[in-house]
């Protein structure tokens, strides 16, 4: 069955934390994101690439998620001291700084097999 119904507005209301007007829910989403980043880091650390190039790329991904975990922990600490702290803007700024690390891994993963 197909439909022309656009579910994106409803989806945004229920899934995207930045779209909620309730600050408590935004904080909960942020804390959940930190928990999931830690889980991702554990899973990534348990995997192993075989080639030297693969190991280098894999280590970049580990480095990215270690940085994510560290930055989210710092932001959560600041949130506990400062009620008016704009943690979403700070996360966006920090993530933009870390994105090149993740992109190095993504370029290896998305490269065409020779």
Number of helices, where a helix is a run of at least 4 consecutive DSSP H or I residues: 4
Oligomeric state, counting identical vs distinct chains: single chain
Strand content is: under 5%
Percent helix, as a range, is over 70%
Gap from first CA to last CA:
40 Å
List segments where confidence is low: pLDDT < 50 over at least 5 consecutive residues: none
Indicate the mean pLDDT.
Answer: 84
Description:
The chain has 4 helices and no strands. By secondary structure, the chain is mainly alpha-helical. It has one domain.
Summarize the SSE layout with pairings:
Layout: H1 8-15, H2 23-46, H3 52-81, H4 87-110
Please summarize what this structure is.
By secondary structure, the chain is an all-alpha fold. It is 75% helix and 0% strand.
Record keyword descriptors for this entry.
about 110 residues, single chain, mainly alpha, globular
């Amino acid at each position: 069955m197909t439909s022309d119904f656009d579910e994106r507005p409803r989806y945004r209301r229920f899934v995207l934390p930045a779209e909620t007007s309730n600050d408590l829910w935004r904080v909960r989403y942020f804390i959940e994101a930190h928990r999931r980043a830690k889980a991702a880091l554990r899973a990534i650390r348990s995997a192993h690439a075989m080639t030297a190039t693969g190991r280098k790329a894999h280590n970049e991904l580990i480095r990215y998620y270690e940085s994510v975990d560290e930055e989210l922990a710092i932001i959560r600490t600041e949130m506990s001291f400062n009620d008016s702290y704009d943690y979403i803007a700070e996360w966006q700024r920090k993530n933009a700084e870390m994105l090149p690390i993740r992109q190095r891994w993504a370029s290896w993963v998305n490269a065409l097999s020779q």
